[in-house]
Design brief:
This protein has helices at residues 40-43, 62-70, 120-124, and strands at 3-15, 21-29, 32-38, 47-54, 76-82, 94-95, 105-111, 116-118, 163-165, 169-181, 186-190, 200-204. The protein has a six-stranded antiparallel barrel. The protein is 9% helix and 40% strand. It has 205 residues and is mainly beta. It has two domains: 3-114 and 169-204, Elongation Factor Tu (Ef-tu), domain 3 (Beta Barrel), CATH 2.40.30.10; 115-130 and 139-165, no CATH class. It has three helices and twelve strands. The longest helix is centred in the first third of the chain and has 9 residues, at 62-70. Strand 10 and strand 11 form a beta hairpin. The chain starts with a strand and ends with a strand.
């Protein structure tokens, strides 16, 4: 799907026309530079490669520097391919936040916050034992039985247990665009999106 690369700024809230307080996420979306146009003849498929966020030249490898120089752009930190654009692009073209319209809907992909090693209550929303009056004393947040003893005498693969949590690629669909601020390249979408402040997002129509 067509879209842009953005960066999560943080969360705030705005008042709707009927006076309701709407929580929303502020995203810096673009400007994104076209750094490569892929076609069926040359690459076997059609796609547009966009780049976002300035990167220091001393931190850029020579192959990267040559790639961006070919497009007439400065080095960028984040590069993502998009397809199904209706319009045609040339190297060096720029897409801004006005690519999106207010009251439209977008899908946003990001890397969720890493939580480290967590138990089953936090990781999988297990209930735990709420009733502590019937003899048990220290098993409030334990997972319970993970399998029978003599048969099958093993723990099945995929059993939900404690472990590393977060840091996954997460996609949230159908988020409403509350407001577009072109002069500051800002996009306000209803609700929360994956990732910490400053993390990169892929925003698709």
């Amino acid at each position: 799907m067509p879209g842009l690369i953005g960066k999560k700024i943080g969360m705030t809230s705005v008042f709707s026309a009927d006076g309701k307080n709407v929580p929303c996420t502020v995203i810096e979306a673009g400007p994104c530079v076209v750094t490569q146009v892929k076609t069926v003849d040359t690459d076997g498929y059609e796609a547009v490669q966009l780049a976002f966020d300035e990167k220091r030249e001393k931190s850029t490898t020579q192959p990267e520097a040559g790639h961006f120089k070919k497009a007439g752009a400065t080095p960028k930190r984040k590069v993502v391919e998009f397809n199904e654009f209706e319009q045609e692009f040339k190297l060096g073209d720029t897409l801004g936040v006005d690519f999106f319209e207010e009251n439209s809907f977008v899908d946003i992909t990001g890397i969720s916050k890493g939580k480290g090693f967590q138990g089953v209550v936090k990781r999988y929303n297990f209930r735990g034992v709420g009733d502590a009056t019937h003899g048990q004393h220290n098993r409030l947040r334990a997972p319970g039985s993970i399998g029978a003893a003599s048969y099958p005498a093993r723990v099945f693969k995929g059993m939900r247990m404690a472990g590393r949590t977060g840091g996954d690629r997460v996609k949230v669909e159908n988020l409403k665009v509350i407001k577009v601020i072109p002069e500051n390249n800002l996009l306000l979408v209803k609700g929360s999106v994956p990732g910490a402040k400053g993390s990169y997002l892929i925003i698709q129509k």
